[in-house]
Amino acid sequence: xxxxxxxxxxxxxxxxxxxxxxxxxxxxxxxxxxxAGLRRRLPHLAxxxxxxxxxxxxxxxxxADGGYDVADYRDIDPLFGTLDDAQALLDEVHGHGMRLIxxxxxxxxxxxxxxxxxxxxxxxxxxxxERYIFRPGRGPRGAEPPNDWxxxxxxxxxxxxTESDGSPGPWYxxxxxxEQPDLNWDDPQVRAxxxxxxxxxxxxxxxxxxxxxxxxxxxxxxxxxLGSLDGKxxxxxxxxxxxxxxxxxxxxxxQGWRAVADTYDEPRVFVAEAWTGxxxxxxxxxxPDELHTAFNFDYLMTPWRPDRLRRVIDSxxxxxxxxxxxxxxxxxxxxxxxxxSRYARPQPDGPLRSLSDLKxxxxxxxxxxxxxxxxxxxxxxxxxxxxxxxxxxxxxxxEDLPEDLLQDPTWLRSGRTDRGRDGCRVPLPxxxxxxxxxxxxxxxxxxxxxxxxxxxxxxxVAAEExxxxxxxxxxxxxxxxxxxxPALGDGTLAWESDPDSTLLVxxxxxxxxxxxxxxxxxxxxxxxxxxxLASGPLHEGRLPSDTAAWLKD
Length: 553
Prior knowledge:
five-stranded antiparallel sheet, 553 residues, 25% helix, 15 helices
C-alpha cells in the first residue's frame, strides 16, 4: 500500500499525534517532560501507527504561558534538552518512518526575547521599538490604555512601560499575557526574521510547522476600538473587518512562507491554528499558494449530536473542497477540555467551547463510550486527523487540581474564576499502580509538574496493552485498518442516512461504511457486510447506543 510516510502529499491523509512536551514523558527524573523522555517513548507512537508528531514549543522561555512565550526561536530550552537532543530526536522519528512538525509562535514573543529587551532599552522612535506595537495612552497624561482591546487570558490587552529615566512611557499590545508582547507584522524586519527562522528548522530536517494564532498577526490600521465585539480566541472573527482577528492582510504573509517551504526538494508543510467565523473563511488559509492545512475547530467544538456533526462535516468538506484542500479533524488539544469529559455531560445546542458550557456532573462511562465512537467516526472521515496525547488511553479532564498548583495564566488573569487549561495538560500515565505512573525513569522520585489522579491506574499504557476492550487497542486497530483500507484517508464520502436520523451512516468507496448510533436504543446495522471494527460490543448484530462500527462490503 502507498503509505502516508512515503508520499510527498503525506499530509493530506496523515494521522498526526500532538505531543505536549512537558507532559508526555520525563527523561531526566525532574518531573517535567522533555526530549529525552519523548525519545524513550517513541516506540509507543510508532506502535500506535501515527504518521507524524507535532511538538508544542520547545524553545527557551520563561514559561509564562507554557512555552508559548518564546525568548529564542533558534534554540531549545534547557528544561527540555539541547539542539543536539532535538536533532537526535528528529533523526529517530525519521528512523521510525514518521515525520516531525514543530510549533512556531509568530504573533508574539516573550518579554525576555532580545528584541523586546532592546525595544525597552533603545526608547521611543527606535527601530527596535517598531518591531512591536507601542502606542501612547489615552486620557490625562496617557494613563488609560490606547483602546478597549481585551486579552484572551482576561483583562486589558495593554501594559504600560516605564522608560529608563523613570518616566511613564507608552503602552504595548499583548493579545495574550503581558509577558507576550505582540509583534508588528507591518515591519519588514519581523517578516524577514520569521522566514529565516523557518529556514533554520527546515534546513535541520523538520518536516512541517504548526502556526500558533495564525489568524492574529495583522492588526487594523489605527487600532480601532472593538466596541461590542468580543476578542476571545475561541470564538473566531464573525465579521470580516475585525480589528485583530482574521484580517485579509495576513494571507500575504503566508504566501511568503509557502514560497520558502516550496524551495525544499521535499516541500515542508504547514498547519494553521486559525479561528475563523465560518468554514469559507478558514478555506482562505489553505488556497493552493498558501498553507497546506488548518485545524477544523468547528468540528472540535461540535456537541455529540448527529445533526450538528453532519452539518459541520458537510460544511467543512464543501468549503475546503472549493480550494482543493483536505479537511483536518480533531477532538481534543492542549487548549480545550478533553473530549471524554465534554461528552460525559448532557450535550447543548451550541458549541462546546469549555466545560463551563455544560451542566451537571460528568458520567465518565458515558463520555468514554462516546469518545470511542467519536474516534472511529473521526478516523473514517476524508482528510487528515490529529490525536491529542492521552486520548488513545481514554484520559479525562482533571477537574480538581489544587488551586495553588494551577499554572495557566488564565487562572490569575480571570480573577481566579476560570481554571484555564491545566486540566488537559496533566502528565501521561505509563505504568504502575500509583503516581507518577512511570512518567519519570525508573528510580526517579520527582513529583510531576501537575499531579496525576490515582484513578488513572487503570488507564496506563501498560494496563491497556493487549486488552482488546481497551481504548489503546481500539486506536491501534483503527489506525491499522485505516492504513490498509484503500477507501480511507483523503477523498470523499456519501451519506446513506437521512439528515434527521439518529444514525449517521456514510459510505466511502470502495466498499466501506461507517455507522454511528446516537439513539438511546440499539439499532440494526444497515445493509450487508463484514464488521471490520466496532467501538463497543455488538448485541445480536445490533449497534448499541453511542457506538460506532466500520463495515466492509
